[in-house]
Amino acid sequence: xxxxxLVLNAGSSSIKFELFEVVGDHAETRxxxxxxxxxxxxxxxxxxxxxxVLADHRWPGPDVADHVTALVRIxxxxxxxxxxxxxxxxxxxxxxxxxxLADPMLVDDGAMERLRALMSLAPxxxxxxxxxxxxxxxxFPGVPQIACFDTAFHxxxxxxxDTFALPPDFYARGIRRYGFHGLSYEYISHLxxxxxxxxxxxxxxxxxxxxxxxxCAIRNGRSVDSTMGFTALDGVPMGTRCGQIDPGVLLxxxxxxxxxxxxxxxxxxxxxxxxxxxxxSQDVRxxxxxxxxxxxxxxxxxxxxxxxxxxxxxxALGGIDALVFTAGIGENARNLRxxxxxxxxxxxxxxxxxxxxxxxxxxxxxxxxxxxxVRPTDExxxxxxxxxxxxxxxxNA
Length: 397
Ligand code: ADP
Prior knowledge:
Elements: E1 2-10, E2 15-23, E3 26-36, E4 43-48, E5 53-58, H1 67-78, E6 85-94, E7 105-106, H2 109-117, H3 126-139, E8 145-149, H4 159-162, H5 168-172, H6 182-195, H7 197-200, E9 203-209, E10 213-219, E11 222-226, H8 247-257, H9 261-270, H10 273-278, H11 284-289, H12 293-317, E12 322-326, H13 327-332, H14 334-341, H15 353-357, E13 371-374, H16 379-396
Parallel strand pairs: 1-6, 6-8, 9-12, 12-13
Antiparallel strand pairs: 1-2, 2-3, 3-4, 4-5, 7-8, 9-10, 10-11
Helix pairs in contact: 1-3, 6-16, 12-14
Bound molecules: adenosine-5'-diphosphate.
The site of adenosine-5'-diphosphate has 13 residues, from helix 11 and helix 13.
């Protein structure tokens, strides 16, 4: 019987999962997948590490109505593939640790209360993360549940990077810039430290460009600033989210067009960004194929804003030694990468067209002052590492 760690990332209508086998002191991925459409049109897909499909099932909506049932169905679906493996812990991606929670945390009853208290800071995400932990606690009674926070990597920011220009009691009440995608940035930082310690000790801007997009300024492995703020709405535009917007626009929409909080939530989270601007799709691949001028405009705006933020974060670091692209767009959208870097020559950035077209791990031109790298991110792998480290620490305690 071998030991395994299950990693869950529970969203509003989906649970993403990845199973790692514990080999010596590290975790190796064995399978991953997701249950989508919980409560609507549930669909489970799971693949092994070679991308062979292990499970592909659909159910009527009511048959997988909530996260608890979803997890039961996931475990049934992948059951034959995990025979002979004992789940020793479940790691959870939790979006918000608030001002105080940074280290991965064993979730007992008291910890669950602390997570619930943070729901108001991330009402659209945190409740689903908590539902995932509750589901896993029921499905795996007695097995340690470990929460890893997306905000944690940014907790060492200087006050200037995290505050808003509001009276100080707002900051004290938790109204501050937290930053997200921390597990991705932490993973990339660790990877660089292993591959290129000298570079990792320097000034690195990481562009996590996926459906959700943000960028992070990292010095010597520590986050100095990041484009996302109090919520995952701020910064660069995303698949369906607006990115930075003048707060006066929201006041205007409320005062003159009668929009309320629900209307604004729908607009800013679900009908803005690439999807809202193009009216076509949130997916860069669709927009690149489209001949509709709105698709081209949406991509141009995306490129413009990402380039601007790279400049801003380079300023926050006092210079830049490396730019790292990661996540779905960063790893794959070569045209956008080239366009973003075009115009950043003043930062020593120059992209080699052939390397970029090949999605090479290093796409900077030979001799360019600033290295430009492409690395796949692995947030689940980072969680699995945290889980093993925490188990190790509690064994040694
Ligand atoms: P999430 O934030 O949901 O984890 P991902 O990091 O997987 O998202 O990024 C998904 C996005 O990556 C897609 O919506 C699409 O815009 C983009 N993408 C993925 N593959 C490609 C590709 N080959 N070319 C261009 N864009 C791509």
